[in-house]
Amino acid sequence: MTITHFNLLLKRQWWENRKPWLVGSAAIVAILAFLFLLAWQWQTSFNGDTPHGIFLILLFGGGGVFMSSLLKDLGSRQKGIWFLILPASAASKLGIALMYGILGYIVAYFILFFGVKTAIVAIVAPTGSSWGSFDLFKNGFYQFLFTFITFQSVVLWGSVFFNKSQFLKTLVLMIAGLFIIFNGNSLLLKWMTGEKKIDATMPLDSFQFTYQGENIYVYPPDVVGFASSLFLWVLVPVCLWVITWYLLKEKEL
To answer: pTM of the prediction?
Structure first.
């Protein structure tokens, strides 16, 4: 598989799917505009950083739907045969899905989001207003990119693993998994420490408990946090890509 061949496959994917993708882009623009106008109209009722919330909702929601749609036809042998007989290896097909589902979607979404935000702010916000300000690097917000890659990798795996309702089943599996992880972590910490009230989320992350009426926060060493981030943002996606590649190989047989 040469770079030229891979580029031809990328162009073919775009050419065959450009119409639904453009319709989806228009839908994202419409939803973004609606959410920004809603946030402006009811700005006194919304607390917190509304633009960042809007950004994440459609990044993960739209991105998940888009990634799932790339390989969803593999659930049907009749519909998926065109993809399976493409003159390309399973690794190349996986690479195409990752290019469009992660890199392509992020670039397109950034353009749509900032374009809509700039237009809405210019129309409704008075000159000098700070409403609608968006700082990608404030408080480490850029870390959402790593979480998004992991999320998209799980969705991609689910679109190949499940035969029907791939995105819905993958979402249910992720929600159930997070519920078990979060609650299991809290129960484990309570059992280890003997404290009855502990607030915790991810394993190997910070947690909080109450001692003599005071809230005590416990943070793991930096090396533990780095190892945890490396596991979630690098090792997990790579493992999911390998598993997805293997599933594609099996479907080709």
So the answer is: 0.83
Domain locations in the chain as residue ranges? 3-164+220-252
CA atoms 80, 101, 234, 224: torsion sign: negative
Q: What is the pLDDT of residues 80-115, one digit of tens each?
A: 455 555 556 778 888 888 999 999 999 999 999 999
pLDDT (tens digit per residue) in 23-34: 999 999 999 999
Structure tokens at 3: 């770079």
Dihedral, CA atoms, 45, 51, 56, 57, nearest 10 degrees?
50
d(CA 106, CA 34): 21
> Which among 192, 189, 178, 122 is positioned nearest to 150, based on CA atoms?
178
List, as one string, the DSSP characters of 49-71. Answer: -HHHHHHHHHHHHHHHHHHHHHS
161-187 pLDDT tens trace: 888 888 999 999 999 988 887 777 777
Query: How many whole angstroms separate alpha carbon 179 and alpha carbon 213?
Result: 28
- Please choose, from the candidates 43, 214, 33, the residue with its C-alpha nearest in 3D space to the C-alpha of residue 122: 33
